[in-house]
Amino acid sequence: MINADDLKEEMDNCICIDVRGDSEWEEGHLPGSHHIKWVDIRLKNSDGYKRLMDLVKEHRNERWIFISQGNIKDIKPGRSARGWLAAADLKTMHRLENVACLEGGWVYFHSRNPDIVEDHRSKGSCQICEFHR
């Protein structure tokens, strides 16, 4: 696990894989992160799997962080299932060493760092903010 504050410090020095679905990704994401849906992580014929394998070949020895949604109804740090499972898959199936998932997922990270989301910066709000109003 990596917490929101540590990810903010490290986000320029790691490979961030966002494993949320398409509609969740549209709610906002980290600049420079890669969107590979969790359902594609094990599907060897999917475009997402192929992109992930290209990233593994290119960045095998770097720090990897997996981001999933987290609990949108209750913003608090905790284990996000999809991020944890994707990190475990990469660690066990592809023998990557420096792998973690984001504690609390995207929802918690965003609540701690709302300025990261472009919509939030430009409009003062975004879809996650609207959900919690």
Describe this structure in words.
The protein has one domain (4-131): Oxidized Rhodanese, domain 1, CATH 3.40.250. The protein is built from 7 helices and 4 strands. It has helices at 4-10, 22-26, 47-59, 81-93, 105-112, 118-123, 127-131, and strands spanning 14-18, 34-35, 63-67, 99-101. Strands 2-1-3-4 form a 4-stranded parallel beta sheet. The termini are far apart.
Elements, N to C (H/E)? HEHEHEHEHHH
| CATH level-1 class | Alpha Beta
The major sheet is characterized as: 4 strands, parallel
Structural class: alpha/beta
Number of helices: 7
Low-confidence stretches: none
Shape: globular
C-alpha Rg, in Å? 14 Å
Q: How far do the termini sit from each other?
A: 29 Å
List keywords for this structure.
alpha/beta; four-stranded parallel sheet; Oxidized Rhodanese, domain 1; 133 residues; 4 strands
What's the topology here?
Blueprint lengths: L3 H7 L3 E5 L3 H5 L7 E2 L11 H13 L3 E5 L13 H13 L5 E3 L3 H8 L5 H6 L3 H5 L2
Parallel strand pairs: 1-2, 1-3, 3-4
In short:
By secondary structure, the chain is α/β, with parallel strands linked by helices. It has helices spanning 4-10, 22-26, 47-59, 81-93, 105-112, 118-123, 127-131, and strands at residues 14-18, 34-35, 63-67, 99-101.
